[in-house]
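Q: My collaborator sent me two sequences in one message, no labels, and asked for predicted structures for both. Can we handle them in order? The first one she listed is below.
A: Yes, handling them in the order given. First sequence, followed by its structure tokens:
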Amino acid sequence: MFTDDVRRAIDQSVLCWLATVDGEGQPNVSPKEMFYAVGDREIHIAEIASPVSRRNIQGNHKVCVSFVDVFRQKGYKIHGDARMVCEDASDFDALAAPLQKMAGPEFKVRGVVVVEAIRATPIVAPSYRLYPDRTEAEQIRNAFRTYGVRAVE
């Protein structure tokens, strides 16, 4: 399921976006900072301060997690089934430990969202299709110019 390219997108992302759905079908998107891929089908995500995501997952296990490099303007969305592992679960400590290490002492991991991937779909900015001869390096330069940032040397 997770190709090298998908794994690279996950590993190089500083944020992912977790989309859930509430009991009335209303979508909710929440940024997440602590996450990592496990094997080739799972993503573990720290739940630190997201009661809406927690409640939604407990009511509807269908989720989508997106990883996008804003400069390359490429990434992946992972559709899957999620389960919420809470602090009273027997496997919580083992699942939370790597995420708590990422979070450091400032943030407490209150739960772990375990996403089992069903499919991974590329996310690609329209400019790649509109300008098929444009290289990724050119795309990055254009993004830097658009966003007013410079590469760190």
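Q: And the one she listed second?
A: Here it is, processed independently of the first:
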Amino acid sequence: MTSPTEDGFARAAAAATTVPMLPCGDVDELVAFWTELGLELTYRQLRPNPYVALRAGAIDLHYYGMPGWDPEASHSTCAIAVPDPRPLHERFREGLRARYGRIPLSGFPRITRPRERANNGGLSGFSLIDPAGNWIRVTRAAESPVRAGDDDTTSWTTTAETPLARAVENAVVVGDSHGDAQQGRKILVGALRRHGDAPPADRARALAYLVELALRLHDTDAAHRALADLEGVPADGDGVVHAALSEARETLAQADPPEDAGSRA
């Protein structure tokens, strides 16, 4: 039998709402950004400190102003769990394209593509880094808890059947989850060199992601070389190579303009 205190705690916790409060240098910049991406301003405070609240459905994001805030120094993050991340990704992409004329892959803001994450129990997800450098991590909600053993820790879930496929998983964790595009590219380049005889689908996925990582690093020449290599991969029976080609070409077409790269790096 549980105590009245425990019962009350359980009821309160079940009815609770958790709202991330994220720092920024200019709350109005974040309002303009998120309203373009589909959220609605629900509260704005000027004194004693700048503060805004934005909402779309059950998504709540709050921002507080900090003078001298540096996006490069940000380590703030939050997670949004949804049944399917793709509709959010598509809507955010539309807003980004409307606001910036392209889908930014580097600097602030930027967005990654939805990918399965081995360090997220195999669930798919993507990250949107806002103009203040905060990471908004959108993930597919698990239908049931993913557990490993009796210690309630989330398991590392992999579907990779080849060394190159495992390297792609590692590169996604490093490049997308950790934001280290340079190390992610290093992982892929080395794996492609070692496993040139991998199945076409694995090579296509690796090369398509390599195109994106190169563009994040403003290395357009390397992105074009990776695309040329991808165009030489023979088609597979499941359409993976074709899909990877389409993704890579779209990614290259929406790359940051060269003259803008330095200011947004």
